[in-house]
Request: fold
Amino acid sequence: MAAVRVLLVENECLVRLSTAEILRDEGFEVAEACNGDEAAELQDRFDVLFTDVRLPGTLDGIDVAMQLRQRHPTIPVLIVSGYAKHLTGRLGELQPPAVFIGKPYDLQEVVAALNRMMVRL
Reply:
């Protein structure tokens, strides 16, 4: 069985690197992007999107998810942010709903969420 391909979008370099390393150790194939614009160029090659909301550039994480869902309506989306109270309305626009985890997050919680999302495919 092929590894699940994750597009990880996180602008904080150390967070992105450590998260990608853990995901790879758990058997995921991971590509990394440091902003929404870079992610938009890569998003057709993945099974799941894992993105922070606040990103530099013209696209934030929810924008990236919305663009990806236009081409792949049911692709699983995992969104993380430390600013949950400001996201309720925008997160509601994603159908099917995205999975949300607040920052700071536990990496094992992320791995478990990704595994649950992949079982539904």
About this structure: The CA atoms of residues 3 and 67 lie 24 Å apart. The two ends are 14 Å apart (CA to CA).
